[in-house]
Design a protein that fits this description.
Shape: elongated
Number of helices: 10
Structural class: alpha/beta
CATH superfamily of the largest domain: Aldolase class I
Strand content: 15-25%
Number of strands: 12
Radius of gyration: 21 Å
Bound molecules: iron/sulfur cluster
Helix content: 25-40%
Order of helices and strands: HHHEEEEEEHEHEHEHHEHEHE
Strand order of the largest sheet: 1-2-3-4-7-8-9-10-11-12
Largest sheet: 10 strands, mixed
Number of domains: 2
CATH architecture of the largest domain: Alpha-Beta Barrel
CATH class of the largest domain: Alpha Beta
CATH topology of the largest domain: TIM Barrel
């Protein structure tokens, strides 16, 4: 069993079972999260016999092992992590001035199968555990010797299709005994799992929600994001509006700009209509072509036209500055090209 996925109560139960006082859990958590120590033998305030007992129980701290990385000139770095069963997942480190963001994965592959996404073409293998999720962020912080300030569930997988583990990981990232990241700096990006959006709104967490919108008609959205056949656009938008109303957090509507597919004047008028009058922000994303992909990016002037039209109608909007395209670390490009 891995220590990294346990919350404080679970770790306290474990140390009590092993005959130690409750406060040993706090000591272990300090070593793991504050000092980045993975080896029980180095946890010098634990009795040696207890260290040995932890090892004898087959317990380990860590859940992922760095197995490769590629970095761009701007400092964006894509990591490949090996899991205990030999599977691999990727995560991306994105440094800006004060903000250090990790985009992490929640599944090996993805069951949603979006037509523009490299991960979607990989198929689905399995859900990650909470420990495997939170350890991606912890390991990158340790390797970069920096405090990770922001984390987004926007790597491989649909986070809300792995709800329990994703939520537990977000709570561990946020916990005072964990990585102590502000809930407002944590974001879950979903392709639109409607019941899970309602559930998330009731969690009493101040985390951000981003929706992969990408189309404004059911016909096109179902072609791009097959999950739209189960949860059509009107239902998804209703759930997002409910999330914004309940949490008072602005929902981000992600819109990948695909040349000749979703970037026409009709699309723009519908996008403005859909985003007006509630707490949301439209993020226009220049498409990153993936090898063998069928789409092309919209011309920059089309992206600017969308931005201007939305802003004239008082819709909060921006064009995302893409980072990491050189190492295929940009949105929709995470598929294990680094090799285990
Ligand atoms: S875009 Fe997201 S939800 Fe869609 S296939 Fe890719 S990883 Fe899955």
């Amino acid at each position: 069993m891995q220590i990294i996925g346990l919350n404080r109560e679970e770790l306290e139960d474990l140390v009590l079972e092993l005959g130690e006082p409750r406060y040993r859990a706090r000591q272990i958590l300090d070593w793991v999260y504050k000092k980045g120590v993975d080896d029980f033998g180095q946890m010098s305030n634990l009795p040696v016999l207890f260290q040995q007992r932890l090892q004898a129980q087959g317990l380990v701290v860590s859940a992922v092992t760095p197995a490769g990385a590629a970095e761009t000139a701007d400092g964006t770095k894509k990591y490949l992590f090996r899991l205990s069963d030999g599977c691999g997942v990727e995560a991306v480190y994105i440094p800006e001035q004060k903000r250090k963001t990790v985009c992490f994965s929640t599944q090996v592959g993805c069951p949603v199968g979006c037509s523009f996404c490299a991960t979607g073409r990989q198929g689905f293998e399995r859900n990650l555990t909470a420990g495997e999720i939170v350890d991606q962020v912890r390991k990158i912080g340790l390797e970069k010797k920096t405090r990770i300030t922001h984390a987004v569930a926007m790597g491989q997988g649909e986070p809300l299709a792995n709800y329990a583990a994703t939520l537990k990981a977000l709570r561990l990232l946020n916990a005072d005994y964990g990585l102590q990241m502000a809930a407002r700096h944590l974001t879950v990006s979903t392709s639109g799992v409607v019941p899970a959006i309602y559930r998330l709104a009731d969690e009493q967490l101040q985390i951000n929600l981003a929706l992969s919108l990408h189309a404004t008609s059911d016909q096109l959205r179902s072609a791009l994001i097959p999950l739209n056949r189960t949860y059509p656009l009107a239902q998804v938008i209703r759930a997002c509006r409910d999330y914004a109303a309940k949490t008072n957090r602005r929902v981000t509507l992600e819109y990948i700009m695909l040349d000749g597919v979703n970037d026409g004047e009709d699309d723009l008028a519908r996008l403005a209509e859909l985003a007006m009058g509630w707490l949301c922000h439209v993020n226009l994303i220049p498409y990153n072509p993936v090898p063998g992909g069928a789409y092309r990016p919209s011309p920059p002037q089309t992206c600017q036209r969308f931005l201007g039209y939305l802003q004239e109608r008082w819709v909060a909007a921006s064009i995302r500055q893409e980072r990491g395209a050189e190492v295929n670390a940009a949105c929709g490009q995470l598929r294990q090209q680094l090799k285990l």
